[in-house]
Structures are given as C-alpha cells and as structure tokens.
C-alpha cells in the first residue's frame, strides 16, 4: 500500500522543521517552573513528536488498518505494565501501615 | 511490478511449486518463492518489522517502568540527577537524530523514485549523523566517569547520601547505553543497505529493505525523543548545577 | 514399497541430502525437525535434573546432595524445562511444521528468520550450558533479586545472558507466525475457516511478542547489576526487589500461556479428529484463545501476593485471575461436548486427549484455589503450587505435545509407529504422572515448602510415592524414543490420511513435498467439515 504513496520532499522537510521547533519548545519550557505541569507538557510534546515520526516518516498514515492496530497495541501493552505496577506502588499507602 | 491479483494468480495454472530455477514467466528476481507478489512481500515485510518494533517498545518499556517506579519513589533524587546532565548536548543529539530521520526518509524516497545518487547521499548522511550522535554520547559518558557519576565502587560518596541518585544514574546508563547499542546496530544495518544501494539493488519495484530498515532507524529516534525530556529536562528549571 | 520410497524421496526428507542442506535449510518442515531434535535433548537434560531432585526427596534428611547442589538442581530443572523445552516445543516443532500447511501456504512468511530462530535457540542453549558447567545456577528459575543480582556466587550473569538470547528465538517465531497468519492464507481460507490449532498458535504468538521482551530487559538488568554494578534492584541504594518481581512476572505469567495455549490448539485438532465431528462452539474456542492471551497479561500480581504488594493491587489481580480461568473452562466444555455423541475410537491420540482433559482440569481448578489471596497465603511456596503447575505443564502441555507428536508423526515422517507402544506409553505417563504429583498436593496442603531438600519424617511416605511415580513417568517418556525411532527404520509407510481427519495437512502426501502443495489450494469449506458415516482407515 505504501508503494503508491511517495510524499514530496516539501512535506518531509515540513515535518522535520516541526520536530525541531517542538524540540526547542520542550527545552524552553523546561526553563520555567510550571510545577506539576512540567512533566505532562514535556511528555505531551514528546508524544506529538513521536506521532509525527510514526505517521509521516514511518508512513503509518498510509498503512493498512492492521499495521495501525499493531502500533497502538505496542503502546497499549506498555500502559498495562505501567498501570498495574503503579497500581501496586500507589495504593500501598492506603493501608495505613507505617513504612511504605 | 504489474502482478495479477492475488486470487487469480494463485489459481493460475503453471504456477506450480517446482519451478525453482525458472524465472521465465517474468516475475521480479527479488520475489521470494513463498510469496506470490511483490506487493504481498512488501506488506509482509513491513508488518514483520512493525511487529518487531512492538517487541522493542516492550523491551525499552521495562526500563521505562523502572524509571517510573523510582521517580515516583525518589522525586528529589531524580531532579538532582537530571541536573548533572548536559542539556545543550542532549538537545544537540536530539536535533542530530531528527536530521538523520529526515535523511533516512529521503533515502527511502530516492529508492522509490529510482534515484541511486539520492539513496547513496542520504544513506551516507544518515550514517554520519548517527556517528555524530555516538561521538557526543562518548563525550557525555566520559564526563560522567570524570565526575564520579558512574554507579558502583567509584560513585561519588557524597551523592550516595541522597537515596536514589545512584539509581538514577544506573537507569541513565542502562537506558542510554541500550539505546546507543541500538544506534550501533542501526549504523551497521545502514552500511549494509548503503552497499546494496551502491550496487543498484533498489528501485521502484523493490525497495523493501530500505523501507524496513528505515522503520528501525525511526524507532531508535523515537526512543531518544522520550529519553531526552525524561532524563535531561527534569531539573533544568530548578537552576544550573 | 517403491511407491513409498519415491514419496519420501520427493518429500522434504528427500534431496538435497547432507548436513549443510539441513543446517542451512529454509524449509519450515526441516527447521521443525531440527527443533524436534533440540527440544528432545533438553527434555532429557531437564528430566535428569528432576531425577536428582526426586532421589534426594526419597529420604527426609538432605543426604544425597548438599543444599547448594540441590538449589542448583531445582533451578536448572526449571530453567531447562521452561526455556528450552516447554516454550519452544509445540510452537517450534508442531507449529513450524503444520501452520503453513494448515493455512495453505508454501512456507512461513520469513523462512530465513525461522532458521535464525533455531540458531539463536542453540546459541542460548550453549550459553546456558556454559553457565551450568561454570558454577551452575542456584537462584531458582525465577532469578529473584537481590540474591541473583548481588549475593549468589553461581554463574548468574552467564545464565541471564543465555535466557536473554533464547528469548529472541521465541520472539522471532511469534513474529513469523503472526505475519504468516495475516498475510499468507490461501484463497478462501478466511479467519473462521482456520483450524483452531492456528488460532491457538496466533494467540500464543501475540503473547510471545508482547511479553518476552520484558523478561529480556529484566534479566539484562540483573546481569548489568552483577557485572557492571549498575544497581537497579539493590536495596542498599534504594532499589526495590519487588520491582524485579513485577517485571519478571509480567512476562513469566503470560509465559505459562505460551506453554499451554499451543497444547490447547493441539487438543482442538485431536478432539475433532478422534470424534470425527466439528468442534462444538468453534468461534467460542477461537475467541477463548485470544481472551486467554489478553487476560493472561493482567494477572501477574498473583505471584506477588505475599511479596509486600499492596492488598488492593492483590485484589485486582485475584479477581482477574479467576476470570482468566473462564475461557480455559469454555474450551474444556466445548471439547467434551464435541466428544459427546461423536464417533470416538481409541487410537493412540485419543488416549492422550483423555489424559489431557482430566489432568488439565485438575491443574486449572487448583489454580483457582491459589487465585484466592486468602488460600494463597497458606499455599504459596509449598508443594501445592508445584503440583498445580505440573498438572498444567506436564499433565496438560506435555500430554498435548505427545498427543500432537503421535497424531502428526505419520505426516511428518511418512511412517506409522506401534499403536501398542503408544498406548503403553500413554498409560505409563498418565499413571506415573498422577502418582508423582497428586501426593504433592497433599504435601503442600500439609505445609511442605518447595525448594527444600530436607523435610520432617511424617512426610516421607508421600515423597516416596512421588518419586516412585516419577520413575514410572520417566519410563513412559522413554518408550516413544524407542518406538518412534523404530518406526523410522522399520515402520509401515503412512498414507496421506491415516486418521481420516479433515484439514489441509491431510490432503498432502506423508511426508509432504518441499513446497507443501503441488497446486495452490483454494478453500471453500469450513474447518472440521466431517460428514456422518465416513469410513476411517487406520494403519
């Protein structure tokens, strides 16, 4: 399927410039203390950059629905690992037992 | 490249299994025998590489899990550790990898368009940029050794007091080290692709290896896109170290 | 006779001959045979370690081995059996051989990667053997930190690297199967016409892909901690050993589904064939495979109930663990329903089927006892757990593997084996198995801890029964070595379809030609399309 889609150099360069701008943005934002928002902003920018690479540079935009499912499930599975493990760590204090 | 449709081709008489040496009925010499069309081969290869990249997501994911758990446990140690990292160098490396992703995608495009020169130039640039990344990494690592920030017997005893800083650096070295190992492998793969491109192996009818290797390269870039803010940009806003 | 000779010489077993032709093959069938030889060797090695364990446990005192040696025995028994036998067995032997033929393809999607997966397996095996001979491994197959990463004086780093490398064999097999099932099915072979063996292999492959990388990085972290002092789990610098357990079991629980799902796939094939009937509730069984694969990733915390894991997390894991039993139960009910009023005859595969059904049910049921946190607190780390997982792994997975080997042996080798020998083997395995492991349920309930080489006198009778059973079990596994080998040399030639079974693999000669099909198949009937009153030709 990606055979038929040969993107223009202009599109690739535009994505490239966007990636550089977002990189600069994330460095800039790090100079400011936004408190608890610093991490979500940094991660949010990283997700946008990664999405640009996945969709445009890796061509997933044009891939089959199956490929898109594969990409999504990879990250979904990561969230299963993160979610259930942090579910342990974050609920330990609920017991009211000293120590953890 | 104009292969018949899948069903018809499969039922085509004469397309038996026992034609091993005979390419007389005009299919691409790059078509492997268990596939019936170049399109199927490209689709299967792309899917295969993506399935492999999912395993890579889970592979790095284990380390990100450790990062997440320990950052939650030792937030100040994480900030303090991050303050030791060189943000301009990290940002430079991020830019270098983004550039290399651009040259990579242009190399694939050149193969799709049949431009041998375009492939060679862009592949060489990609390899060079990858090399630049590794050189910068080398200087960063050297700096850590000098400042006693490498976990183990030589870790700065004063820092050991702050519970978690040695953990931060263990994860720093594992994350960036495994990433760097992937870069080295990537450069190796690109060198092989470059040699094949030099020999004119790729064109509009067959560029699967370039595309599939490109996917790997972009993935390694994506890992760094997450590593950079998570390792370097935590403590920056707290001031210089 | 000469016709059979020419069938074999026109098959994948014929030319090209020679070591190089086999070691550099791209044919999935030859690679399956390479795996068969390798996993059989490691089954024997694992069995040897088990003998060491059972001999020690004949007497209450720890008088055969030192405790250090005993620790190495049970560790290596686990490592070898899990990583070098159970995980590869059905997928790499039966899956590799049958999957492409069952879907009407000439080979897997990536034949060279298939061969690479075997070489990676061999490399991982060599590295692990190097660990065995350079200090052994005494951490338990579970590698718990900080003992494994800091204190143990055995060859942990080497073994960790061996497991790391072997994991990639699994990953590449899973990758190959997934792409093959998606992209290489013959015309007309829709998803819901696929044999259930293929559904099971596909589900297994999903687990291999999503889980194995996590154990890969985890053992790498342990090796890095030992070799490079990059302490990730070291409590002295704030590391958390429970984090290791989360990461380890995130893979190792789904790993048990990697071990049982293919066995369930074999069961579906055998049940349909010996009953000569469409599998009852085909789509339920197919979806159950997927459900097990997915739910299997959400339950790992049941290995951490007593680890200081949060009780609330334990609650969630406990409930989901009970849920994951449901699809397995659905399958068992459906196989039973298939056999009910089917034309079941007692050829050797049927014996293995029946053995599996009973033993897997007991194993699964006892898993539910362990899933209840309250029970688990008493039963964890006792022989109850050991019995539970052996009922599933041996009573379930290995019985299914043996059943599959017997069912497809004529197809793979073109030879028929001794039915009498096979039935004897099935009886010996079934009775030996129960004698070995049922007493262990009792021992565990009475409180005998696992991984101990000495125990109080009052438990000796049960332990002696267990060891006696183990020797019968060993005999049962040894027998096939003889009659299978004999069949290769002096066995009768097998027709294309000795069992009268449905499925694309039975439409090709025994053994199949190199490219499987002389003409590309087109599928236009459902799976297991048995019609009543069909004649069966056996032998």
Structure description:
The complex is a heterotrimer of chains A (100), B (241) and C (539). By secondary structure, chain A is mostly helical. The longest helix of chain A is centred in the last third of the chain and has 27 residues. The radius of gyration of chain A is 19 Å and the shape is flat. The mean pLDDT of chain A is 89. With 241 residues, chain B is mostly helical. The radius of gyration of chain B is 23 Å and the shape is elongated. Chain B starts with 5 loop residues before the first helix and ends in a 9-residue tail after the last helix. The N terminus of chain B is likely disordered. In chain C, 68% of the residues lie in helices and 0% in strands. In chain C, helix 4 crosses helix 9. Chains B and C meet through helix 1, helix 2 and helix 7 of B and helix 7, helix 8 and helix 9 of C.
In short:
Chain A is mainly alpha-helical.
The biggest beta sheet of chain C is recorded as:
none
* Strand tally of chain A: 0
Summed up, the domain count of chain A is 2
Order of helices and strands of chain C: HHHHHHHHHHHHHHHH
CATH superfamily of chain C: Cytochrome c oxidase-like, subunit I domain
Class of secondary structure makeup of chain A:
mainly alpha
Quaternary structure annotation: heterotrimer
State the end-to-end CA separation of chain C.
15 Å
Query: Poorly predicted ranges of chain A (pLDDT <50, ≥5 residues)?
Result: none
Mean pLDDT of chain C: 95
> Per the principal axes of the C-alpha atoms, what is the gross shape of chain A?
flat
- CA radius of gyration of chain C is 23 Å
Q: Report the average pLDDT across residues of chain A.
A: 89
Largest sheet of chain A: none
Q: Which band does the percent of strand residues of chain A land in?
A: under 5%
Q: Which series of helices and strands of chain A comes N to C? A: HHH
| CATH class designation of chain C | Mainly Alpha
Q: In terms of structural class, how would the helical and strand content of chain C be classed?
A: mainly alpha
CATH architecture of chain C: Up-down Bundle
Rounded radius of gyration of chain A (Å) = 19 Å
Characterize the overall form of chain C.
globular
